[in-house]
Amino acid sequence: MRIYALSDLHVGLEANRETVTTLPEHPGDWLILAGDLGETEAHLRLVLEHVVPRYAKVVWVPGNHELWTSETPRLSGQDKYDHLVELCRSLGVLTPEDDWPTLPGTDVVVVPMFLLYDYSFCPGNMSPGDAVRWAAAGGIVCADERRLHPDPWPSRQDWCAARVEATRARLDRLPPSKRTLLINHWPLRLDLCRLFRIPRFTPWCGTRQTEDWHLTYRAEVVVSGHLHMRATDWRDGVCFEEVSLGYPRQYDPARGAPGYLRQIWPATEPAPHPTNAGPRWHR
After folding, report:
1. Nearest to 236 by CA among 203, 271, 201
2. Which domain holds residue 178?
3. Of 269, 276, 261, 273, nearest to 33 (Cα)?
4. pLDDT digit string (tens) for 68-99?
5. What single DSSP character describes residue 241?
6. Taking the model in full, what pTM does it have?
7. Helix spans in the chain (H)
8. Could you read off the pLDDT of 131-160 as tens digits, one per residue?
9. How far apart are the first and last CA of the chain?
10. How many domains does the chain have?
11. CATH number at residue 213
């Protein structure tokens, strides 16, 4: 059995929608969808109805785009997340709210997570307001500020804190003998956020609370998306995979979505020698 991963399909865009519907069959394997499949329930359903019959198991975690308030009825915040979880469950898709399975024949637990961000991925100890102003001074304004409503939480950072606390509690209950495959839309570490064209977008990219989770929770692989910067990185001997497709200008249309489907389990390459531990970019 193999596990593949892909994220940031953005099927609201016609070119992405067309290429995603060409994803091939892997009937004995699993597929991780690491968020930002689209902005609406219809977008999520389109992707899932295509891939669910083609894989033995599909795993989904939400990204910020799925959580945008963008349709009628105007579900937002926790209500929209809950609604999408129920849609996934109706199609047999594993979500962050379900029991975490152990991969057959291993001690590796598959851990889909929904953690959000808290504006701490920025210099110093900025408040969220300061972080937003710091980004704006560099010409960056994130659409989440208008479209990702945190109801009933007072703020996105409060929602993030609740998600981190609940997920940490579940992880802490895992037996010490278990290793993990951690999945989150947002990267778990600031040093993976190499946003060369928009460096001040980092406040919306994660939380410093998770920077050591790959060690604390004995990760074999950590999967994320969000950055639209496909890469394989290694930290402390742990493999970090950024598996975005992205917008049409960010991938080769001749390869399409099938060409960017990444096998993340079993590992396809060994950990690099410490003197050659830079990222491997996936063009």
Report:
1. 271
2. 3-281
3. 261
4. 997 756 889 999 999 999 999 999 999 999 99
5. E
6. 0.96
7. 14-20, 41-51, 77-90, 128-137, 144-147, 156-172, 213-216, 256-260
8. 999 999 999 999 999 999 999 999 999 999
9. 26
10. 1
11. 3.60.21.10
